[in-house]
Structures are given as structure tokens and as C-alpha cells.
Amino acid sequence: MHKRKRKSNTNQTQSPTKQYTVKEPTELLVFLLDTLSNLGRNSVKSLLSHGQVLVNDQAVTKYNFPLQAGQTVSIRKVKVTNTSNMTGIIILHEDEDIIVIEKESGLLSVSSSEENEITAYRQLMDHVRRENPKNRIFVVHRLDRDTSGVMMFAKSQEVQQIMQNSWKDMVKERLYIALVEGSVKKKEGTIKSWLKETKTFKTYSSARSNDGKLAVTHYKVIKFNSNFSLLKVNLDTGRKNQIRVHMQDIGHSIVGDKKYGSRSKPIGRLGLHAQVLSFMHPITGHLLRFETKIPKLFLSPFRGKPTK
């Protein structure tokens, strides 16, 4: 793992400061409420959502994470972030090296042809420069404008290069939730193709092997009815528009995705959400995992109808 001298900054993430040993099997939220009796329920949930709780040195955000006797739960101090002046962003975690956010659908991640358009990148740049005008952030990966969910940025070019050069090895889990058209008959499967791009920047699967960039997508149906299916989607590769193209390839375009064959827009947005991102911290080597809730809109087509 890459190492470098860390500068001292009392406003940034510190090493875990409080540790507790689990005595008997329980769930994480229950354990924290019992152990941190001086804190209210909302305060404890805030610790979880901001990545301040570690189980055996792994950051955990899931309330019902199962604990076993003998495990160590650590609570670390992190910088308190005010996001009230940001649009479409919740900061899940921030330390000296990285920022992890949850982005809303409709917010552009990075660049725009419109000079004054609000982007996640621009807002986070303003955020870090409030502390020091020389601070910057660096793009590690992107989410499409209409895709919501977890994404991360680096706070130095060095960290950006570490993450980008070792992305496949350092990222341990990328889980998306996709709401697609129709009832997917095969309830679990893998889609593999070679992706290329047209002159108008539309991605498509080539009919020939080794013609383009290999893309591998795994999916599992978690809810369905005659009109829609809700899928968990895991990626082996992170190609541009990969999930959108692969869903079209199997005849079940993502809802609201007119570009890739969708004929419906039941939730008023693209039905794609980056729910989980888990990766090795580029400097500390700790495994971090961030999980967000499935957007309520994604569940609306299944209310009052038979589901799996």
C-alpha cells in the first residue's frame, strides 16, 4: 500500500479514538445505542452515515450490520461538514485524502458546456477552498448526470493517481440498483460484451469479440411485476454507460433512458442508482464501505402489486 507522511490537521480525520469490544451477537445500531447511551438515536445514525464507525477497522454504514462476540467497534472523529449551502450533494465521508458523496439525480458530476452550471465537482472545490484557497479536488470516477448515488473525489493529484492506476484492485464492491422495463425472466445472470462508441458518443455493444473495451455486468432481480423489474447490478468493469447498454442488450432498458431504448418514464428520472461503493483507502489501507438507501421512487411501481 502506498505510504506518505501525513500532515497534522486537527480539523481532519483522526485515527479511531474510542474502541469497544462486542460481548455477544447483535446488530450494529443496537450495539451503538446501548454503548453510546449519552447520544440520541439521530446522533448515532449520523456517526454511521458519515463513515465514523469501524468494525475490525472496516468502515460500516449499515444499521443492521451483524456483530459477533470478540469484534472491535471503533468510533473515529471526522471533520464536521456543513452541506446546507450545497445543491444535490450529501457528504458521506471526508478526510485528508478523499471526499465521498451521495449525488442526486440531475446533478452533473464534473464538466459542463454551460459555464455557470452547478456541478458536484465545482461545489466540492468551493467547499475545500473555504479552509484553504490552495486546496483542490481531483476526479477519480464519474456518475452520469441522471444517475444518483455514491461517488468519490481525491484531494490531491497523488491520491487521484493511486486510485485511478489501481482502481480494479482497490475497489472491492460497486453495487447499483436499476429499475428496468418489463419482467426479466432470467432472475440472475451475467452480461458480457465489447463496448464501442459512435461518432456521436453513444456507447454500443460490438457484434465482434475483442472489438472495443470488454464490459462485464452481473445482475439479480430483487422485485418484479408484469411491467417492471428492480435489479441489483454488480460491475466487474466500469465502462461508460455500461449498465445502460447492457440492459438494452437484454431487452429491458432502464426506465427513463430514452437514449438506450426506454419507452417509459414512470418515476420522472433515470432508474439507476449507485447504492454501494467499497474500496481500500489509498493511504491508510483501511477498507471503507458506503451504502445508501434505494430511492423510494424506485419502489413505487411495485406498491399494491405482486412482487417477488
Tell me about this structure.
With 308 residues, the protein is α+β, with helices and mostly antiparallel strands. The protein folds into 2 domains: 18-75, Structural Genomics Hypothetical 15.5 Kd Protein In mrcA-pckA Intergenic Region, Chain A (Roll); 89-302, 2-Layer Sandwich (Pseudouridine synthase), CATH 3.30.2350. It is built from 7 helices and 17 strands. It has helices at residues 28-35, 41-49, 120-129, 157-165, 167-170, 242-249, 296-299; strands spanning 18-21, 26-27, 53-55, 58-59, 66-67, 72-75, 89-94, 98-103, 138-139, 148-154, 171-181, 188-197, 203-205, 213-224, 228-235, 272-280, 287-291. Strands 7, 8, 9, 10, 11, 12, 13, 14, 15, 16 and 17 form an 11-stranded mixed sheet that branches. Strand 12 (188-197) and strand 13 (203-205) form a beta hairpin. It is globular. The relative contact order is 0.14.
Average pLDDT, to the nearest integer? 87
Count the DSSP helices: 7
So, the CATH homologous superfamily of the largest domain? Pseudouridine synthase
Helix content: 10-25%
Span of the ends, CA to CA: 43 Å
User: In the CATH hierarchy, what is the class of the largest domain?
Assistant: Alpha Beta
Q: What percentage of amino acids are in beta strands?
A: 25-35%
Low-confidence stretches: 1-16
Query: What is the number of independent domains?
Result: 2
Shape: globular
The count of strands amounts to 17
CATH architecture of the largest domain: 2-Layer Sandwich
Predict the CATH topology of the largest domain.
Pseudouridine synthase
* Structural class label: alpha+beta
H/E element order: EEHHEEEEEEHEEHHEEEEEHEEH
Largest sheet: 11 strands, mixed
Q: Rg to the nearest angstrom?
A: 20 Å
